[in-house]
Amino acid sequence: MRFVIQRVTNAKVTINHEIRGQIGKGFLVLIGVGEDDTPEIADKMIRKMIHLRLFEDENGKTNLALKDVGGSLLLISQFTLYADCKKGNRPSFVKAGAPDMAKQLYEYIIEKCKEEVDIVEQGEFGADMKVELLNDGPFTIVLDSDEL
């Protein structure tokens, strides 16, 4: 599983010209589900993400987590995080999770995050989405379950 976490001042996702999710201060998280991912892996990734100290304290040090600043989440599914570009110029996505399994895990992640964070917005699995954000920093972290 891969999470690309971007600390944002604000972010939104639009589908068919309609805003489907919008947040202020928090994390925009692009979520890629791999073929071998499980709810247990998702739990580990969520715990790590929620507790990452990516926000500045009164001394300008990144000592504060999402909950400490009342931050929100915007969760976007993105199977292209499993693109394999080793051969040729056309990416292969064979390591991405099968759509049914990936959708189920994406929805699981959303529900688990709602248990921890007051405001959780989301995109739509498999939809053509337009994502806008104001990256704060910029500050972007890549979490890969293979490295946890």
CATH topology tier name = D-tyrosyl-trna(Tyr) Deacylase, Chain: A
Q: Indicate the mean pLDDT.
A: 97
In percent, how much strand structure appears in the residues? 35-45%
Residues in helices, as a percent range: 10-25%
Shape: globular
Major β-sheet profile: 6 strands, mixed
What is the domain total for the residues? 1
Structural class, from secondary structure content? alpha/beta
For the record, the CATH architecture stands as 3-Layer(bba) Sandwich
Radius of gyration: 15 Å
End-to-end Cα distance, whole Å, is: 10 Å
Give the uncertain stretches in residue-range form: none
Work out the helix count: 2
> CATH-wise, what's the superfamily?
D-tyrosyl-tRNA(Tyr) deacylase
Number of strands: 8
Element order, helices and strands?
A: EEEHEEEHEE
